[in-house]
Amino acid sequence: MKIGIFDSGVGGITVLKEALNQLPGMEYIYYADTINVPYGTKPKENVKKYIFKVVEFLNDKNIDALIIACNTATSIAIKDLRERYDFPIIGMEPALKPAIESSDNRKVIVTATNLTLQEKKFNDLVTKLNSWNIVEPLPLPKLVEYAESFIFDKNIILPYLKKQFEKFNLEEYGTVVLGCTHFPYYKEYFKEVLPKDIDIIDGNYGTIKNLKNILNIKEKKDQKESKITFYISGREDKEELKKYLNILNK
Ligand code: DGL
Questions:
Q1: Which of 110, 118, 182, 183 has the most ligand 1 atoms within 8 A of CB, as the residue to mutate?
Q2: I want to staple 139 with a disulfide (CB 3.0 to 4.6 A). Which of 32, 100, 114, 177 is the partner?
Q3: Same structural domain for residues 112 and 74?
């Protein structure tokens, strides 16, 4: 089975990694729209055009299902994409429900891109969960830039994160949501900056679980190797993917 997966850049590799764990033996075609990254700070209409180009590229590869490994792209385009294409499309959104459940009646910080946090999809979700009084949004656009530039240096990331969380009285919070697929690269740094009793949640595990349900795949086919083809804005590449998977395997 051929599964298309895309992100504005390398963030979706954190989702691909989870797919390789939970769902090996598939053929994955990953598209990093690096020429247009970041999505999260650009006008919505432009980003929508980029997304449609990417999905058309993947459609030409005859994929059987698509993972939008990008919260930003999901929030602005999933509805239109589902109308246009027949294959199953799995999107991502900040994991707010599990975050509230695990927050022990304390508040929740949702980190994501500016676009995701502004978009109707996220705001509707907060309303649906009746959680406006406990949710604090926090855009972290620099982490997208850092990940794209392969910057994982503690001396750069820690001060940035410390500064961003400075404005919160962290004792009031139970959970921090990583609502952008670029952020799990920095999970250990989040842990270092946040008090021990704050849970850090991302949507990667749930997304692949969802994909398995939708495709009705029950058992893990460990015997078979996955096949991955990696494209950077239309050009096939192997080295970039390896570099980033190594960071996640550390
Ligand atoms: N990785 C993306 C997300 O999950 C978008 C990052 C960006 O391009 O701004 O939202």
A1: 182
A2: 114
A3: no
Given the CA of residue 7, which atom of ligand 1 is nearest to it?
1
CB under 8 Å to 117, separation ≥6 — which residues?
110, 137, 139, 179
For 199, the domain range is 96-203
How far apart are the C-alpha atoms of 229 and 241, rounded to whole Å?
Answer: 9
Residues 155 and 57 in one domain: no
Q: Residue 11 CA: which ligand 1 atom is closest? A: 1
Pocket of ligand 1 (CB under 6 A): 7-8, 11, 37-40, 70-72, 113, 116, 144, 180-182
Q: Annotated catalytic, 149?
A: no
| pLDDT tens sequence across 198-239 | 999 999 999 999 999 999 887 665 567 899 999 999 899 989
Structure tokens at 191: 């842990």
Residue 70 annotated as catalytic: yes
75 and 152 both lie in a single domain:
no
| 122 and 80 part of one domain | no
Q: Using one digit for the tens of pLDDT, what is the confidence trace for 190-200?
A: 999 999 999 99
Return the CATH number at 9. Answer: 3.40.50.1860
Question: Angle at CA 138, nearest 5°, toward 136 and 144?
Answer: 155
| Residue 70 CA, closest ligand 1 atom number | 4
What is the rounded CA–CA span in Å between residue 206 and residue 213?
A: 10
DSSP code of residue 164: H
Q: Give this prediction's pTM.
A: 0.96
The CA distance from 226 to 155, in Å, is 36
Separation of CA 117 from chain center: 14
